[in-house]
Amino acid sequence: MIEKYTRGWSFRSATPSFEPGQEISAFLTGVRGDDVVARVGDSTLVVDGATPDDVDRKARIKVTEFDDNDHDGRAELLELVGESAF
Amino acid sequence: MAVGPPDDDDTDIEREIEEEETARGKNDIEFYGGRAMSAFPIAFFIAWAIVQSGLLRIGDTTGLVAGMLIGLILGLLFVKGSWKTYANTIFEGMTQRVAATAIVAWLWAGMFADTIQAGGFVSGLVWAADTAQVGATLFPAITFILAGLLATGIGTGYGTTVAFTGLFFPAGVLLGANPVLLFGAILSGAVFGDNLAPVSDTTIVSAVTQDSDIGGVVASRFKYAIVAAVVAFAAYVVAGNVMEGIEITGDAAQILVEESEPAGLLHLVSMSVVIATAVAGRHIVEAISWGIITAVIFNVVFGLAPVSDMLLFQAPEDAPIAEQVEFLPFVEIVESGEEIVSGSIYSGAQGFFPLIVLTLLIVAGAQIMIRGGGFEALQNWLLDNVATSVRRAETTMVGGTALVNGMITINTAAEIAIAPYIARIGERFNINGYRRANILDANTSALGYIFPWSGGVLVGYAQITQLPGEFEWFTQDMVVNPADVFPFVFHGWLLVAVFLIAAITGFGREYVHDRESEEVARL
Fold first, then answer.
1. Is B508 in contact with A12 (Cβ distance < 8 A)?
2. Strand order across the A43-48 sheet
3. Is the pLDDT of residue B1 over 70?
């Protein structure tokens, strides 16, 4: 329980990094050209396998590549797991 | 008795369900004047709320209900084609889980808050202040802590402000503390509790609208609240030494002693039970139920309050079983015409009824804005022009919440109105639900007690204006003008500042993948 109080006492980057193979939950946040993307802070992941209808839904995705300099990468859609709060 | 054949009833119900499902599936209510007109019910309500609560200074929640109802009726007039989809969308909005969850949590929180108040929690804090024997310079700082403690226990900043301006305020003034600083310290304590208490109406709204569990939200916002509170406490100590009070001859302790009861502090345990069980991940209904059970047992076992203070049936003499059950501690026979049910369980739940109705209607209005396309239009404008990076998104969330709360002085209503935007803008940057809830609630709580037209300030001011009638020595020039107090609500200002700094620097920022909220299961 104490851990819940002590988490987040830090400064988090606006451009988070990801490792290939990492599985995360994220909202699919928009469409860029023909691609659906998940924007996490100011980093962006193109999500293969997602369609524009999936935007604003929460998904489990697996990061396949990520460039730390451009804060840009790709991921594949594993499953849709939730909706937007509104 | 059934009036018509059962088949007809079934058909009607099935048709209603079908129509509602059609409304859910459809994404279009067309309005004369375009998508922007779908915002009419909500915009009308906001304008009504500003006029009623800000300009006319009427803090009546049921008055806002009337405003939202009229807004929904007038909005109907701008609908193109059939009005049926609009009407069904009202039902669709009202039946959303977010409204139901907030309502359930409020009812439980109301019962708990009134029950620990019936058990003399305030009297326990009064005893603590009296025993500590603090002088005039430290009195505002100690008042801030004790008001914060009460507000964290009962979850209502308004209730805390009323209790403290009636007791601690005159005692502090008599002791020689500066009246303006003292009022600011009380309001700061109210902000602290409104922001942090798991049983606070604003805490509950912030969690459920951002798909987060209440216990997790409370634990995650502690870091922001405590940073602001430590600085605010130091500021009250310094200001207490610098700002002079009024010289009055009288015994300050006498005011406190009359209301002092150390056993009331036992309810710190009731309060801890709720906080600990909620933060441990128990469902909020379970957490508050444990708190209510603890509070009721303490009240009865330690003689803090009789059963009749918590629940009382006052029945007329000619009621069929009145005389047979009169021996029960929660039954009393009264004259015909005076029959009523009362007590903290009753009043605590009842106190939330107007807010519950208002919430259902605001959520319905928001749903019409979503179905009419106005919500998306405003959201896209914000995302394209204002919230273009995560820092700017968070700054927009802080500023937007503060702005709406600055205009609508009944802060829970303001919070519900802005919550969908905080959710959607935050989700577009994958900002964690806890962080979104914390931004939403901190600025809602703070702004509700700062400006001269804020509900919390007016509640305290109303109480202070009655003091000249209660104490001979309390003269009219000791009444604090609401316009004078706003620079001294240190914790409120600091909480807003902490979140602005946090948005810019990334302090406390978490993304969706950093931490999974325990979400729906433990709301």
1. yes
2. A23-27, A57-67, A72-83, A43-48, A35-40, A30-32
3. no
B513·A26 Cβ contact <8 A: yes
pTM score:
0.83
Mean of pLDDT over chain B: 87
Contact flag B279-A38 (C-beta cutoff 8 Å): no
DSSP codes joined into one string, B147-210: HHHHHHHH--HHHHHHHHHHTHHHHHHHHT--HHHHHHHHHHHHHHHHHH-TT-HHHHHHHHHT
Band (pLDDT 50/70/90 cuts) for residue B521 is: very low
Please write the tens of the pLDDT for every residue from B316-338.
Answer: 988 999 889 999 999 999 988 88
Read off the pLDDT of residues B383-433 as tens digits, 9 standing for 90 and up: 888 999 999 999 999 999 998 888 776 788 889 889 999 999 999 999 999
Q: Are strands A57-67 and A23-27 parallel, antiparallel or unpaired?
A: antiparallel
Per-residue model confidence (pLDDT) at position B409 = 65
Which positions in chain A touch B434 (Cβ < 8 Å)? Answer: 8
pLDDT of residue B4: 40
pLDDT reported for residue B11: 56
| Residues B423, A29: C-beta atoms closer than 8 Å | no
For B93-115, b/e burial (b = at least 16 CB within 10 A) is: bbeeebbbbbbbbbbbbbbbbbb
Q: Kindly list the residues of chain A whose beta carbon comes within 8 Å of any beta carbon in chain B.
A: 1, 4-5, 7-14, 16, 24-27, 29-30, 38-42, 56, 58, 82, 84-86
CB atoms under 10 Å from CB of B350, counted, come to: 15
DSSP labels, B81-148: S-SHHHHHHHHHHHT-HHHHHHHHHHHHHHHHHHHHHHTTHHHHHHHHHHHHT--TTTHHHHHHHHHH
Nearest Cβ partner for A14 among B279, B390, B514: B390
> Contact B210/A85, CB-based, under 8 Å?
yes
Contact (CB, 8 A) for B60 and B52: yes
Interface test with A, best of B390, B439, B440, B504 (most A CBs within 10 A): B390
Q: Which of B211, B419, B506 sits opposite A11 (nearest CB)?
A: B506
pLDDT for residue B522: 41
Residue A5 — pLDDT band, cuts 50, 70, 90? confident
Q: Which position has the token pair 């959607």?
A: B424
pLDDT band, very low/low/confident/very high, at B15 (cuts 50, 70, 90): low
Which residue does chain A place closest to B509, by CA atoms?
A: A12
3.40.50.300, 1.20.1250.20, 3.30.429.10, 2.40.50.140: CATH of A18-83: 2.40.50.140
